[in-house]
Design a protein that fits this description.
Helix content is 40%, strand content 25%. The chain is α+β, with helices and mostly antiparallel strands. The chain has a 4-stranded antiparallel sheet with strand order 2-3-1-4, with helices on one face. A hairpin with a 4-residue loop joins strand 2 and strand 3. The longest helix has 19 residues, at 2-20. It is globular and about 35 Å long. The two termini are 17 Å apart.
Amino acid sequence: MGMVRARVHLFIFLAFLAASSSQAAQHQAVVVQFRAKGIVCAMCVQGLKKRLLSEEGVQSVDIDLPSRKVRLLVDQPERFTLEFLKKTVEDAGFAFDQIDSN
């Protein structure tokens, strides 16, 4: 768990650093990937996708049902902290599982 947390913090820091390095970089999209528990059907996928797309800065959401992998394309990476992701996923009725490095 400590290794995952360290990777999450490093990923968020690097995404924030890249996004804030120049005016042009602020509009550059960053990929955030994680897994969510409780996604069991297409309706679950649509519900979570709708909830995530309602957040400012989310450009796109892809969810793979069999693996429960969620891939966000965001243009405000500094907003998408681990705590924010957990709360958003839980508000949609699912459980945040882990950050994916791939």
